[in-house]
Amino acid sequence: MFDDRSPIYQQIAESIKDDVLRGTLKEDDQVMSTNQYAAFFQINPATAAKGFAQLVEEGVLYKKRGIGMFVSPDARAKLRGQRQERFFTDVVDRMLDEARVIGVSVEEIKKHIDGGNR
Amino acid sequence: MNPRRQVTEHLLRTYKSALIGFAGVFVVGVVIADIVAARVADPAPGIWMYVAIAFRYWVGIIAVIFISNNLRQFVAVGVTRRDFMAGATAVGVLASVAFAVFVPLGHGIEYAIHGGSGFSAATGFREFAATLVSCLASFVAGSAACAGIYRFGAWGGLALVIPALLPAAAATIFLTTDSDGQIAADHLSFPLALVVCLVATAAVAVLSHWELKDVTIRRSALG
Amino acid sequence: MISLRDLTVRYGATTAVDSISVDLAPGKIYGLLGRNGSGKTSLLSVLSAYRKPSSGSVTIDGSDPFENRELMRDIVFVRDALDAVEGDRAGTLLDLHARMRPSWDAELAAKLVATFELDLRKRVGALSRGQRSSLGVVIGLASRAPLTILDEVYLGMDAAARTAFYREMLADYLEHPRTIILSTHLIQEVADLLEEVVIIDRGRLVVHEDTDTFRSRGVAVTGPADVVTVFAEGRTVLAEQSLGRTRQVTLYGGLDADDRERAESAGLTLTPVGIQDLFVHLTSPEHNLEAVR
After folding, report:
1. How far apart are CA C92 and CA C85, in angstroms?
2. Beta partners for residue A30, in sequence order
3. Residue B3 forms contact with C (CB below 8 Å)
4. C-chain residues near B4 (CB < 8 A)
5. pLDDT attached to residue C292
6. Domains of chain C by range and CATH?
7. Does some domain include residue B219?
8. What interface predicted TM-score (ipTM) does this complex get?
9. Closest chain B residue to C71, measured at CA
10. How many CB pairs under 8 A join A and C?
């Protein structure tokens, strides 16, 4: 589940964000408690709590005192906005760099996309 | 519950059956020996007091077992060395008292059934006192000797074995009883012999305490 | 709070624990990591009042645990040898713990005994190495002591039993948070369970920080030898190897965003270093620790 590439709490936060983006977690859905999360993924609860705290700070989750943590109503839209911004720098630009290195022209890429191979 | 009491109770529970079993075998053995003796000799010699002299050494062995086996186990359940020593000493004292009663009692019964050598209340009392003091001496000697080895290892501990065994040696020299329950040697008067043995016991009890009060809990009995 | 101050343990001329000072906050799971003979057991023995330090001190909430009736009752120390009477039956040993430990949980003990398939009628001396370790785990967890110290308790346990041990430990910790110190050198297996790691090597403290921070400290930099050399200058190099003109160095200390950008634009490849590898590098015999400290 987790790897050594980045702190586990960040990986936890990322995986929850993915769930929100994909719609697995919907607005105002309750997320697992830190203890449930820790037991499920076999990690220290403090690590899980740190991941959740980051999500609360970013506004992806909100806390209801004594009940638990829930997905913020605007979380999905917000995350989409962030990922869309990153999409061009992180995905498209990288692809174009690679294409240039290996001699694939932009025209060919366009053709590939228009061809409806997906 | 007081941890000392828990130590005492656990040790009694653990070793009670073994001790009673051993004592039972002794009694049966003595009865058989008495029957044989009565057939072959007249008047028949008493057997009990020959055998009863062994009880005092048992108490020493108990002390060795307590330190080599049980100290570690009790520290591991969160009992302090001090509390363990107090609880274990209580067992040593109880066993000493029990044997001190058992020895003249056996002698008296043998005498009553079988005639044999002379027995009187005074003899019985002397046997009680001699056995009690000898048992305590033996307990303390066993404890100090074993604690020395536990603490300082086989070689370091060996040097301490000699002083550790002094009370047991004193009891053997001054308080060994013969088959009639009489003190065999007459180097000292009986009360003085008791006092000498008790003083040696007290001194070595201090040694034993010193060895154990902050001893490192090792993985095995011999460090 | 557990506080070690200049803690030193010597055996004759050998210094097993060398002036370690560290504070451990209550209620966390700690990993005490170190190679064999690094001083882990000596340190834990002082902490659990099994031995006196040669110098320095240990205090738990301000008091010395040595011969301290209240504190010793609240500490359970399970070491690989298992401090039991070999002739006792396993069940007798658990009964003793049950009587002596105020917070003993008989239900948990029974559950763990079933999980590890322990035969309580067997004598302690007759148990296999793995069963003996499992019995130690039962004692360590069911005692539910406020300070639970498990010293390499997994010896001889197979992978399935170890997994069960980690799972049960975490589950019980979640329900009953307490301070757990787990000494191990199988770091990869337990890293995710540890809130903080304490690494000692040759008796000295090397690292004490939260596991996630420690995890991100190591990075391997690979690329043309001269570029790598320039990049590594002034940084702590844990290990290095060369193949032809390619060189790889393992750096300790974590890189910030600028460093990463600089490395990537120079054509260097950055790869994370696993926590186990990081530990191995930090405690390898040829490595000079002082550079890290």
Report:
1. 10
2. A70
3. yes
4. none
5. 47
6. 2-213 (3.40.50.300), 216-291 (3.30.70.240)
7. no
8. 0.89
9. B78
10. 48
